[in-house]
Fold this sequence. Notes:
The chain is an alpha/beta fold.
Amino acid sequence: MKYYHSLGFSCYVLLCFTKRACKSGTLAGRLQRRCFTCSGSIAIPGKWDAFHIGHRRLVEVASSLGNPVLVTFENMASVLGWPSRPPLVARDFASRILCSWEEELSLGPIKLQVIPFERVRYMEPKLFLDFLRLQLGFEGLVCGEDWRFGYQAQGDIDLLKNYCAENNWKYRIVGPVYVHDILVSSTVVRQYLAKGQMEAVSLLLGRHYCVVGKVVDKRKRHCYVSELINQLPATAIYEAVIEQHKHCYIHVINEERDKNSCILIDNFTLDHSLHLGQQVDIHIIRKVLSHSTNYLNIIFQFCLYIEEQHLKLFLHDRVLSHTPQQPHRR
């Protein structure tokens, strides 16, 4: 059965992300490398790379059975020889996403169980389920309907259902999640990122996409952010919110310098200076202008855009100030 997500997030959600302290600490505080002994733990296996609204749906369903635990596999890509690519979510930012889910769903701390992939790579499907149930102590499992498991992905949903019936093990199968008729998946998120379609990315994630990096150079009119942790969107100019010491500023960003991926932030839009060498969280809202190879043309187009926005705001305020108030009726 399809699940259509009713999305009501706005900039308010973004500000909650930047200002609310996370009671569960960093993602490292959630990691569990030993066997679980917590009663009532429900496994949610997956790559957990995007933390999109489909993943949130899995957590929501698992919480109806017990305590949701995200199960992921360490070094899976390198062991299988998959090409390396940057993650969609920075490690520390993932903990903040989980904090928001805990608050929205009224849950306790959501834990993360890390399993070395080499440990389970050659397990047959039933042995893998035995491993989750008997060795790690999970009392049930929640997954998507396309989940495959066991050696060479031989296990499917039918095998899972039979196993759960034989062993009286809890389970739920969650159908695909759609938002505005778009199938929610990490692959689709990457596709929209590659096109710079940030509004669609925000819909799939339930929040604005956040790039985490470090300020590596400062100039009079701009500064550069490099040492980027997660995937960048398509090269273009974007409207964004820069979070630095919990203060938010709106900027336009670009991403090219000396053949290394980076983000250019124009200082004339800043109310306060960014500090050299400090981490910056950049929440990308939408594309403003397509990429231009001429830097001066980029700045000129951006200045025109900013002036246009200021003019709209000025005219809006003027209209409000000259609008006659309606007399109060008793």
